[in-house]
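Lab notebook, bench 4. Still working through the backlog of constructs that have no structural model yet. Next entry is a single chain of 144 residues. Request: give me the structure tokens for it.
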Amino acid sequence: MRILGVLCALAVIAVFASESVAADQGEAKFQAMCASCHGKAGVGTTMAPALVKNEFVKTSKPEDITKVILEGRTGKDKKYPKMPMAMPAQKGKLKDDETKALVDYLKKLSPEDAAAKPAAAKPAAAKPATKPAAKPAAKPTTTK
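Model written out:
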């Protein structure tokens, strides 16, 4: 019975370790293949849009994001026409597990719950308390 407990504990550790490795792999692939256009933190550049809190990434299925990564977006499929570059196809440059890790990383940059929750209203800035203006001092009167 004790051996079964140890085996279960090892299985749980292995699952968490593999998730951590996949997350690291996704970020590493992003830095190596995407950051030069989309920015080191995914916040976009003049060459490519932000992927942080990106509506497409937030709301799309992983297979749709995978399709864009592998096939790119050029010509009529180019989503951001004002950007100077098209999204180049990455087919043949990524293994399946690398593509999945990259998609998982992008999803973490743009979680779906961020799309569902409206932004909290900022409280109105408090006006600083002001003292009433001081009355000018009366001029002393002089007698001659």
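Notes after review: The radius of gyration is 28 Å. The first helix runs from residue 2 to 33. Flag for follow-up if needed.
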